[in-house]
Amino acid sequence: MNELIFFINFVLISGAVIGSIYAIGAIGVTLIFGILRFAHFAHADMMTMGTFLVLILTALFPAVGPAIGLPTAFVMMPVAMAATAVIAIGLDKAFYKPLRENNVKPVVMVMASVGVTLMLQGVIRFFAGTGSQSLYIDDRKSIFSFGLTEASEKIVITEPQILLFVFTILAVVALHVFLNRTRLGKAMRAMSDNPDLARVSGINTNTVVGVTWVIAGALACAAGTLLSLDVTLKPDLSFMILLPIFAAAIVGGVGHPYGALVGGFVVGFAETLAVFNWSILLRPLATTFGWELPANLAFVPTEYKITIPFFILVAILVWRPTGILKGKVL
Amino acid sequence: MNQSEKTLYLFGGLALLFALVFAFMGAPFSIRLLAEAACYAILALGLTIQWGYAGLFNAGIMGFVALGGYMSVLLGFPINDDFWSTDLPGQLGGVILKAVLVIAVVVGLTQLKRFGAPKKLGAWLGIIVGLLGYLWIKVSLDPVASAIESQAGFIGGLGLPVWLGWLVGGALAGAVAYFIGHICLGLRSDYLAIATLGIAEIIKAFLKNADWLTRGTLTVSPIPWPVPGPADIGFIGARAAYLSLTAVIIAGLFFLLHRAYNAPWGRTMRSIRDNELSSAAMGKDVNGRRLEVFVLGSVLMGIGGAALITFNGIFDPSGFLPLNHTFLIWVMVILGGPGNNLGTLFGAVFVYVVWTMSEPVALLLLDIVRHLGDAWFGWQAPSDLDSRALQARVFVIGLIISLVLRYAPKGLIPEQVKHHS
User: Fold this and answer.
1) B407–chain A Cβ distance below 8 A for any pair
2) In terms of pTM, does the model score above 0.90?
3) Is the ipTM of this complex over 0.90?
4) Which of A76, A165, A261, B62 has its CA 20 to 30 A from that of A196?
5) How many CB atoms are closer than 10 A to CB A287?
């Protein structure tokens, strides 16, 4: 039974955690891809920036969380999400809008977003240094564990992980309702499908672009915060998850919010499955049949984890160039 | 002011700037600066043909740089007797043979469809055999790798001339570029950027962690030089010799690229960049041409990377930061003028001088700020302020990218488009 619990802890729970983070990030990337038609490289740094806003708020008001019974950082997250959304609109006004009005090629917009990435990184590193920080300033991380009768190991799940799952479900449901039930959501979908047709049928494209940045910015802040609650907050947090997030968006089908969700979990589980040591699961079989098993039978060593999203990306691009849920052909 | 006058003024200004650096920092520093700028210029020339001629967004420059650098280590570094005198080379050879066997079987399985087998069967068999074969190779490599690490450190080099390593590095970078381009060039540029970024990360992760091959984070030094080193003819002489070597390479590349740009090949390239649909309709092989220029540019990056790493004399796989260094080269190209070789050269030297000099200037400024803050407000500066300020230099690159894209999208020395009537 211990083997199964290892599998649950290291594959199911870890995969769901990291998959949710990738999914929330990829939804933002895919919305920007769908509406503004370029790959937004600065998305991951928007996450880091949002998380630092949370850190500042947490340090300013440490007593809020214990009063409600939740981590302070989680309580402060909505405020920071709003602030990140405002900053995202500001970045758009300052750097992307002038280019958009000049009708530059999408690839120039990508360059501009790289410029924004570097600026955000510079600012973050100047003010926060390069060390890692914990979002649990005054609180302590609660850890829940469940034992099974016939196993000595326990299933372990932490408070931020539970919050993450709850938030992901709520966010996805809210996004679904927004996209399908509201006028603005329908306008967004129309613009994503065919921008010219949307424009001539009287949709205010400026509003749609603004709403896109609000959703993307807020979700980026949430993804960064939830990830940092689970691990630690580092200035280079963003770069480590930029590639998986893009992989998730492309794997799921570009411009497709549900695709981003699927892609996020595909990439997340692929990562955890690939670094999982399969010897652990095979050991009972090995003792029954008398096999010789190597001590470590993981597909890739942990230090090569960053390569997995890329392999999935290439495989998907070869097998199904528009992604699992048939996104846009670009 | 016409274009050539402007070019003249810009280069004059650059010379003035360099003269200032020379006056303040002395000869050894300035020659080193120029030699490094020359290595970056080779990289920038590689990028300008990809981005400027063909509009390809390569974000994985550091991968090619690392490959070129490692090849110059592998070929140029002295032979490691601790490794070759044991039976480890034989064991390593056995693993390589296994790998070749697995690759051959997988390729064979994917070709089963030629013999009438269903296409899906071959693909699935290929995937399954590939995965199992991969595990088999991994399990057989692990003990050999740890034996090499414990007995010999790493496999060492081959003791060949280092310039041969540069050429092989270029060739290997080109081969990798062919592989990426084959998969990704049919897609949009955004995908290419993400894919190249990923490849660069894979190459770096491999070089960083394969200690038996590269000594990983322990780094390899000193890498032999293709010209006499500082021990033979002194710092200034050696650096000047190195600078002349890179200058000769740049001159050769410049001549060839200029010819290619004005040849029918260059015209085809630009027509594809400016209007892909119409050039495809005219019967141009869009993806074929793009693959050519992508491979060519990556070869230059491999050579440039090898030159840069050889000059620094140390191979440190964790030293290539994707954002800082890759986009330093991007700034050189878009500031100088994509598609214009002269502009790229200007951009490379100018940006590198600014980048290097920003370090002492930033520290000087911080010193003044700290002094004033202390004197006026009794402010205690954080102790790591210096390192933070240096980290924040990426801000400047980002700002330059944004400003140039907005106000001078064609660069300071733009590509001159000829119109034939």
Assistant:
1) no
2) no
3) no
4) A261
5) 10
